[in-house]
Design goal:
- By secondary structure, the protein is mainly β.
- The protein has one domain: 3 Solenoid (Pectate Lyase C-like).
- The chain has 1 helix and 39 strands.
- It starts with about 25 loop residues before the first strand and ends in a 43-residue tail after the last strand.
């Protein structure tokens, strides 16, 4: 991940700044934006005035490490690149795109396409990718052949596609042949594919971090300002929050970490809709996530290797379905609320795992057969702050059944809230450590 070191404001003046210093360039029309982009140098900032721009934002320049070229809305989300077609194409390195809105009007295309190194999207909005009965479609934000990029505090929504009246995939974020990629603090909602997919082309990828995000399966609301003709009010278009695909033969096993995320509402339109569909030969760590109101919370498929720590699962038809003799599946310090009763319960086994470990977990009601380890515990609803409302913090201390710790995983040194577990006594079972008021 790269760090942004903005130039000192005292050095930034308009137009007459020496080449060795950074400049602040202003633009208020499509033509002015195109012009200043050809003039911009490393460290420069282009301020885009409020308004709607009908030409795509096309960037073919680069900054330097510590001196990115920044394209920034003068007022956050008041500069809108809206057109029936691709809204932005970004090619370069050390670029910062901040506070802009991109809208493609379901024009049979991807909304924003980026390729390069150290590209940072901050506080942007991306909407209406995909198609309305078009021939192909597209995604909200696509990265190709990229590295060390960051998508932060962005709102990506209404990525919806249809062909011939039938739903087609439109993903919120797509990562293809990219490594060291971070998506942090984003909200992704109302997609007809996955909120994030890596890598649909099954090319080499590695080291993806999804952190502090909220991802929803979505439900089309009444009076939707970005309505799509093929998704009526009440429709739930999303497939998965995160879906992994891997090359058949890879030099190394690609890694993905999903941390401190809130995931909910994946109940269609496919069979076995799941929050996380982790499959093929990757290594996944799922830590400090809350997963609720899904047909399946975790669908984990061999030959993936998966660790799940500090997670809370409740109100899913099935909390976890594991398939294809998944070679490694470890759970530690997770809390399993009661499933809805419409599915297969806490766990559904579709071919056993040769290395299934469940330790230090807490179950509302009876423990399933997968939780035979003595460190796991069962609890009544009174053990939690308010299980009926989805609050699975502990109402009182609930120490592990054995002497602990349940596992040596570094992730469980803190709990779901990010608070440290005690080193001088037995920690509590489940995702939360009890904290007296």
């Amino acid at each position: 991940m790269f760090r942004v070191f903005p130039c000192l404001a005292i050095l930034c003046v308009f137009a007459l700044t020496p080449a060795s210093q950074c400049a602040e360039l202003k633009a208020s029309t499509d033509a002015e934006i195109a012009k200043v982009l050809t003039e911009a140098k490393a460290g420069d900032t282009i301020l885009v005035a409020d308004g709607t721009y009908t030409e795509p934002l096309t960037i073919k320049t680069s900054g330097k490490a510590g001196q990115p070229v920044t394209v920034k809305a003068a007022n956050t989300r008041k500069a809108v690149f809206a057109r029936k077609g691709q809204a932005a194409r970004i090619d370069g390195a050390f670029l910062r795109i901040e506070g802009l809105v991109f809208d493609s009007h379901y024009a049979d295309c991807t909304c924003v396409r980026a390729a390069g190194k150290s590209i940072h999207f901050l506080d942007c909005e991306i909407r209406r990718a995909g198609s309305a009965d078009g021939k192909s479609g597209g995604d909200g934000l696509q990265f190709f052949d990229s590295a060390d990029c960051l998508v932060e505090k962005c709102f990506i929504h209404h990525c919806l596609g249809s062909t011939g009246g039938e739903r087609t995939d439109s993903h919120g974020v797509r990562l293809t042949h990219s490594s060291n990629m971070t998506v942090r603090g984003c909200q992704i909602d109302l997609v007809s594919g996955d909120c994030l997919q890596v890598d649909p082309n099954r090319k080499e990828w590695d080291n993806v971090l999804i952190e502090g995000c909220k991802m929803s399966g979505g439900k089309v609301g009444a009076n939707d300002p970005y309505s799509h003709p093929r998704f009526p009010v009440g429709a739930c278009p999303g497939e998965n929050a995160i879906d992994t695909k891997c090359p058949t033969k890879s030099k190394t096993r690609p890694r993905i970490t999903i941390r401190d995320c809130e995931i909910f509402g994946f109940r269609g339109p496919i069979g076995n809709a799941a929050a996380f569909n982790i499959k093929e030969d990757c290594e996944a760590t799922i830590d400090r996530c809350t997963i609720s109101d899904c047909e399946i919370g975790l669908r984990l498929r061999g030959p993936a290797r998966v660790r799940v720590t500090n997670c809370v699962l409740f109100d899913n038809d099935t909390h976890c379905r594991y398939e294809d003799n998944i070679p490694q599946l470890h759970f530690a310090h997770c809390t399993f609320g009661r499933p809805t009763g419409k599915g297969r319960g806490m766990f559904q086994e579709q071919r056993p795992s040769p290395d299934l470990r469940v330790a230090g977990c807490l179950f509302l009601g009876e423990k399933p057969k997968q939780a035979k380890d003595a460190s796991n515990k069962a609890a009544e609803a009174t053990a939690f702050a308010d299980a009926a409302k989805g609050d699975y913090r502990l109402a009182a201390a609930f120490p592990l059944a054995n002497n602990g710790p349940a596992t040596a995983d570094a992730e469980v040194k803190v709990d779901r809230a990010g608070a440290a577990r005690p080193a001088d006594k037995v920690p509590d079972a489940g995702a939360y450590q009890f904290r007296p008021k």
